[in-house]
Amino acid sequence: MRVFSSKLYSSKDPNIHVFFYSKTGSEPLHTHDFIEIMYINSGEVEEYVNGKSFVAKKGDLVFMNYNSLHSFNARGRCTYYNICFYPETLEKVVSPDNAFSLLSLSAFNEISKKKTEGVVSFSPSEQRELQHILGKMVEEQAKRLPRFELVNESYMNIVITMIVREISLPEEEEKNAWNELADFIGDNLDGDLSLEMLAKRCFYNPSYFSRLFKSKFKVPLVEYVSNKRIEKAMQLLSETELSVAAISSACGFSNKSVFYRTFAKVTGKTPNEYRSKNVLKNIGLIDGDE
């Protein structure tokens, strides 16, 4: 499988890259660390994105998020535009809410097991407008006139706004997506809940995911996970006779020293001190010995 990296672009290249292709045949399975938007200008292509197969036709836009696994096969000759950009670019051209709506085309697929295709269809009049805008972006990139990057960022704002108008999530659905992530964390406290792992499973760039998470949960991811692990440890200390070592492992701490230090920081007590004051009535006093 091929892996494309944004590092292939030099530091002098713009943050947004726009290409126009006329192609037959197929593009093999690949992934990359940037976002790709494919707009079908003419013809049809069979798309494969994150385990989901579907057909995209003239006027369809296919969204491939960060780290998505995808390929396509053209049905005869097709023409299409490709827009490739860094996830952080969204912060420069759209509001955080619009960015979330756009990224939610494929975000949380792995966690929620939803099969969102990431396809947006446009009306004939919208297609004409998109083709004009994308054509101007290709022209700006080719000519590289002064401030062409700023011009294309402005065009990109229009493109993303058109997409968001079609796919904006209802408030309740957006809330459910974040609740699914919180549930996933709560169900996997004994496993790997690193920023890199969660961002990859949600098809986000890690740095952008970190900022987005903090904006939604009001605390950094590391602090959120640590607090949830301590909450689970407090419950196990109160309701079970598991040893402190077993509880430390069940809550995802790498060793007892880290567990003791984190527990004392959050509760002001050692695990044994906490247990001695919070035993269940039907169990009786537990001495806290390991």
Question: Explain this structure to me?
Answer:
The chain has helices spanning 89-93, 96-103, 109-112, 124-143, 148-167, 171-187, 195-201, 206-217, 221-239, 244-250, 256-267, 271-277, and strands at residues 2-4, 16-23, 26-32, 35-49, 52-57, 60-64, 70-85, 119-121. The N and C termini lie far apart (49 Å). The chain is of the alpha+beta class. The protein folds into two domains: 2-171, Regulatory protein AraC (Jelly Rolls, Sandwich); 223-277, Arc Repressor Mutant, subunit A. Helix 4 runs antiparallel to helix 5, helix 9 (221-239) crosses helix 11 (256-267) and helix 9 packs across helix 12. A hairpin with a 2-residue loop joins strand 4 and strand 5. Strands 1, 2, 3, 4, 5, 6, 7 and 8 form an eight-stranded mixed sheet that branches.
SSE map:
Blueprint: E1 2-4, E2 16-23, E3 26-32, E4 35-49, E5 52-57, E6 60-64, E7 70-85, H1 89-93, H2 96-103, H3 109-112, E8 119-121, H4 124-143, H5 148-167, H6 171-187, H7 195-201, H8 206-217, H9 221-239, H10 244-250, H11 256-267, H12 271-277
Parallel strand pairs: 1-3
Antiparallel strand pairs: 2-7, 3-7, 4-5, 4-6, 4-7, 6-8
